[in-house]
Amino acid sequence: MKEIKHVFFDLDHTLWDFEKNSALAFEKIFEELNFNIDSKKFMDIYNPINVAYWKLYERNEIDQETLRINRVKDAFEAIGLTITLDEIHTISDLFIAYLTSNNHLIDGTIDLLEYLKEKYTLHIITNGFSSVQEVKLQKSNLDKYFVTITDSEAAGNKKPHETIFQHALTVANASKAESIMVGDSIEADVLGAINFGITAVYFNPSNEKVPNDQIIQIQKLIQLKNIL
Q1: Among 61, 121, 69, which Cα is nearest to 90's?
Q2: Is the pTM for the entire model greater than 0.90?
Q3: What is the domain extent for residue 36?
């Protein structure tokens, strides 16, 4: 890793705790709309549905609006509650509005970034909606650590497509040999980066099975200190 000068991070699920912040957003929404729903049980249903729709979105099989609406609709159907399309739109809009009301980070995020900023230039590559991601970074005080922020809307393509990685390197004035990608998605972050030609580290807190044993992985962010 001696050649590494630039570290690129995914944001959601890697540094910014999407599950915890989402649960708090839905808890606020259910209270405001007088829905008698246990937010924890709802999130157990919602999370895998959300992940599945994000994978479709990353593969360009659905658009942003379909992602936003269908993940809510499917989650309510899965818990056996029928709501109108207007209510689905209301919940989806409130979710985006309230998502950044709380900005919990994955354990070890600040400690790791404080360590890395003295040795490397840090960057973000995210498939998230640009307007929302900017607010997340600002409200969580993460923006001060990153020199460049590349989102899929600006790059014209989403991870794992090579276009977004090339865009990120160009903006960062970095070469492939000098760069490393860290993220929680084996398909979008890790294989996307590897196929593009840069080193990748899989943030794998659940210890999911990896496609091959050559993939570098960590279960806690702080373990990245042993690599970089």
Answers
A1: 69
A2: yes
A3: 18-101
